[in-house]
Design a protein that fits this description.
The chain is built from one helix and six strands. It is mostly beta strands. The strands form two sheets. Strands 3-4-5-6 form a four-stranded antiparallel sheet, with no helix packed on it. Strands 1-2 form a two-stranded antiparallel ribbon.
Length: 68
Amino acid sequence: MFLGDEGVGALEGRILGTGDGRVAVDARCRSPRVDLAVQGSVGVAAPYESDLTLTAEQTSLDPFARVA
């Protein structure tokens, strides 16, 4: 995955809908400089309520600062 011209790593994820009006999200982006994960769920109808947790471990801020 690229953020602007900066490569931040491979993105892999899973999105699962079970018919309860919510979509489960489990995604990760990993490289030697970035280790990010997001987990939780998002509602599929307005107001699209969500419960997501973003975890960053040993992640360089350089790729994000350069884009900003």
